[in-house]
Amino acid sequence: MRTMSVELLHAPDTYILGAGQTSFVPAHRSESSTSQLLWAAAQGALADAGLDIGDVDGLGVASFTSAPDHSIDYAVRWNIQPRWLMDSALGGASGIDMLAHARAALAVGDASTILLVAGDHFNEDDFSRLVRHYNSSAARDFPNMQAATPNAYFAMITQLQMHEYELDREDYGRLVIAQRNWAAENPHAAHRSPLDMDTYLSSPMIADPLGRYDCVPVASGAVAVVVSSQPGPIRLAGVQAQDNVDRQNSTGLVTGLVAAVDRLWRDTGHSVADTDVISVYDDYPAMVVAQLIDCGVLERSDVAGSLRRLLDSGLPAVNTSGGQLSAGQIGAGAGMQGVIEVHDALRDRGPTATRGAQRGLVTGYGMVTYRYGSCANAALLERA
Amino acid sequence: MNRVCASCGWAGLPIREVCPNCDGTAWLENQQAVGIVRAVTRVHRALGSTFEPAQVLALVELDSGGWVIGTGSDPEVGARVIVGPNQVLTPAGRL
């Protein structure tokens, strides 16, 4: 581990050469397949980078619904002869997980041009099967509890957070509405129609206190990036992870970002004050709040007040594609949605208000091992 | 559940081989766990199903240090409960 760190310190920088994505389509309306979506996103990223598939010598894939296929199956389908292959099974943390491994592979010369692809195609049955058999705990630890799904787990975490920081439903509503406003400028978002507080508060209750707009909508879609040590428009300034931070043995209100982001700032010499845009993994509003606290964006001693000030100022801009709560959660691709979101903002392809952004933070969070996510990671991207 | 670390008494889910509290690896089965309800949610919809009445789930912080999600007839936040087989919750004072 120590040897690798020294090598990375002296390794060439890592760049994102291009990004691609499909539209995100509500699960019940998608007629595509997982492989079609992944290929479409891959083609988009390669075109954006000005590369051909023959230039690729490394491939990473994250997808829940690709089974039984893996990265080597896609290498064969797409006529890639990779020197480096990876399959990330870390769901909401998979995008940054793949970025971190790709960076290490580039540093030691295991590959020169790496295509990272993530996404899923869902119908209702696909998603139910995924939730019920997410891991051995999901299949075993909730006997006679048909209602035990992530919506219920995070409903209870939201209650703990509301109590801990004196938040109310309108605090979360302001966050959800702000993200919906961003989504209006994202042509790929699954949900773009305006949302107001009355509609938010009166929406059907799913698992109290979570209403319909607090629960991430399932979508089908895919995203991809091409990374290389050859200079490109976006530089990966740093990446850090901290998994199993609390041994899945606490309230769940603090994520591994509290350690990972601290290391990221020390590693890069930057701070949250240097970031113009932030994408935090947003499966539920409470987890946006938790991560913004852990990243130092919100004040732990005044969460409600600092959240209001953040949303009023838009500095830094948070979840500017609409986040998953409006754009939709594309399965394992959700772990890379934030990378695309910040990449686009830094290339002036995002919302008008983010034009000129120089640096952006992306977080990943996921893998509910029992009650909440056990994985957390973060990447800092900047204009090259 | 009701699997308790033989070294330190920690109990909780998910099931583990190594105790998160003391690194112990020996476990006692069929033990009783008691704790306090920290949150309760009434689930109206899940995975395409509607629950009428809503299914009640509760988050319990165990005295021994772990956390579990269980279900019972009417758990209340702050109540002491016994976590029985299949994570069924009963008031601690009832037994």
Portion of residues within helices of chain A:
25-40%
Fraction in helix of chain B = under 10%
Number of strands of chain B: 7
Strand arrangement, largest sheet of chain B?
5-4-3-6-7
**So what's the overall shape of chain B?**
elongated
Q: Mean pLDDT of chain B, nearest integer?
A: 92
What pattern of helices and strands is seen along the backbone of chain A? HEEHEHEHEHHHHHEEEEHEHHEHHEE
User: How many alpha or pi helices of chain A?
Assistant: 14
CATH class identity of the largest domain in chain B: Mainly Beta
Biggest β-sheet of chain B, characterized? 5 strands, antiparallel
Order of helices and strands of chain B: EEEEEEE
pLDDT < 50 stretches of chain B: none
Topology readout:
The complex is a heterodimer of chains A (384) and B (95).
Chain A lengths: L1 H8 L4 E8 L3 E2 L7 H16 L8 E5 L8 H7 L6 E4 L6 H15 L4 E8 L3 H9 L3 H5 L9 H16 L3 H15 L13 H5 L3 E3 L2 E2 L7 E10 L5 E8 L15 H12 L8 E3 L5 H10 L8 H11 L3 E2 L4 H5 L6 H13 L12 E10 L4 E11 L1
Parallel strand pairs in A: 3-4, 3-5, 10-11, 10-12
Antiparallel strand pairs in A: 1-8, 1-9, 2-8, 5-8, 6-7, 9-13, 12-13
Helix pairs in contact in A: 7-11, 8-12
Chain B lengths: L3 E2 L21 E2 L4 E14 L2 E14 L4 E4 L9 E4 L5 E3 L4
Antiparallel strand pairs in B: 1-2, 3-4, 3-6, 4-5, 6-7
Describe this entry's structure for a reader:
The complex is a heterodimer of chains A (384) and B (95). Chain A is 38% helix and 20% strand. With 384 residues, chain A is α/β, with parallel strands linked by helices. In chain A, strands 1, 2, 3, 4, 5, 8, 9, 10, 11, 12 and 13 form an eleven-stranded mixed β-sheet that branches. A two-stranded antiparallel ribbon of chain A has the order 6-7. The longest helix of chain A has 16 residues, at 34-49. The radius of gyration of chain A is 19 Å and the shape is globular. With 95 residues, chain B is an all-beta fold. Chain B has two domains: 1-30, no CATH class; 31-95, OB fold (Dihydrolipoamide Acetyltransferase, E2P) (Beta Barrel), CATH 2.40.50. Chain B is 0% helix and 45% strand. Chain B has no helices and seven strands. Classes of the chains: A alpha/beta (384), B mainly beta (95). The A-B interface holds A 124, 127-128, 131-132, 136-137, 140-149, 151-153, 155-157, 159-160, 204-209, 247-251, 369-371 and B 1, 12-15, 20-21, 38-49, 51, 54-55, 57-59, 65-67, 69, 71, 86-88.
